[in-house]
């Protein structure tokens, strides 16, 4: 029940946080602001296991103490929210969650660049993202290391995630963003695939550095470009779509975990990594071939989108 509750809370707080950044940051810096926020989200995913391992080994703390420490950090976070300025509500139709989701899906589907970015995020996350589910089994069954030592072996992942994540924040919105996104998504898949041929834990250190760097850069650039290329009125709905891969990743992680029990962890890592690289190359090439729309084309596209969404907005408008 606790994990179900945490997942439900994350489904609300995650999109709200990203859309809020778009509210308080100037329009020309929205992509960079979201990129910095995303770095703050991906970095803990990499460094968290390290801190968790240290807390498990610390005297008088253990697993119970680690959870109490995390709860205390969340209390500080909640208090800090009251110090932030209020957001600016948008003049968009309100209705049920289902209709709002359909509105966001239709809006994203009408824009080819958004469609490719979201498809890349979904498929790469579904194939390479569950590496975290299989990694403890690799340590125990292949390298003979207890899974509670995971953080002590994967600390380079946090270093790479933080350094590269901050570095790519300045690339958002430039002419190099598409190429860097393609390279780093392939680097993420390559890092996962290399775990399938890593002979020992020592060689694993530079591999997880590459994996963490690619993961952070891919998530940061993709999410920032999705927000930057969407209309301000639909930032919340489009942002919610960027969190769908996390749910899908949970289901694919279960499947990859069962497959690892059947054929071995390293074979599964090879399958995950190579599949992710293939997806990145195909969709990344498609994205690079798409020319950014001119101002005239953007205005025409916005008129078409408004005409398309007007019937949905009429249905969602509260009845008097």
Structural topology:
Layout: H1 2-24, H2 30-57, H3 62-81, H4 97-109, H5 112-127, H6 131-141, H7 150-153, H8 155-168, H9 177-194, H10 201-228, H11 235-241, H12 244-263, H13 265-289, H14 295-316
Helix pairs in contact: 1-11, 2-3, 2-8, 2-10, 4-11, 4-14, 5-10, 5-12, 5-13, 6-12, 6-13, 8-10, 9-10, 9-13, 12-13
Distinctive features:
320 residues, mainly alpha
Describe this structure in words.
- It contains 14 helices and no strands.
- It has 320 residues and is an all-alpha fold.
- The chain has one domain: Growth Hormone, Chain: A, CATH 1.20.1250.20.
At a glance:
The chain has 320 residues and is mainly alpha-helical. The chain contains 14 helices and no strands.
Encode the helix/strand succession as letters.
HHHHHHHHHHHHHH
Sheet having the most strands: none
What would CATH call the architecture?
Answer: Up-down Bundle
| Overall average pLDDT | 79
- Number of beta-strand segments: 0
N-to-C CA distance? 39 Å
Low-pLDDT runs:
294-301
Q: CATH superfamily, please? A: MFS general substrate transporter like domains
- What integer value in Å does the Rg equal? 21 Å
Count up the domains. Answer: 1
